Amino acid sequence: MLIAHAENDWDIPDFHADVLFNAFLDGVLPRLKHSHGALQETPDTLSVSLERRAVKRKITKHIDMGNFGYIDNFWDRTKNRNVTLVKAKYGGHDYLGIQEGVQDAMGHMFKL
Fold first, then answer.
1. What is 20-79 written as a DSSP string?
2. Would the pTM count as exceeding 0.90?
């Protein structure tokens, strides 16, 4: 699964790509239990939140690409797939896919 987005996309806000990536990531993290309401933190929910953060750091690889942007990825063992987010600083809505960095990520991921 490859998610690519440019921060300067004025048609679709770039946080949509983050939400989508995190939705895939959420499926492999320990479940949160909210028995007292979403805004109330208990020792149990705090423990699970800290565990989720530790698991996220352990399974997610972050590569800072300087002026290009960054790449985050993880292996989803439950679905047997690689989930990758390529977040470029530039490319807008229409020109992201022609950037060399995005094409390199696609080539590496799909063995092209």
1. HHHHHHHTTSPPP--SS-TT---HHHHHHHHHHHHHHHHH-EEEE-TTSEEEEEEEETTT
2. no
What residues does 74 pair with on adjacent strands? Answer: 83
pLDDT at 22: 93
Cβ-contact 35, 48 below 8 angstroms: no
The answer for residues whose C-beta is within 8 angstroms of residue 51's C-beta and 6 or more apart is: 30
- Phi, psi (deg, nearest 5) at residue 53: -65, -40
Report, in angstroms and rounded to the nearest whole number, the Rg of the chain calculated over CA atoms.
16
Q: What is the pLDDT of residues 9-32, one digit of tens each?
A: 999 999 999 999 999 999 888 777
Tokens 């896919």 — which residue? 97
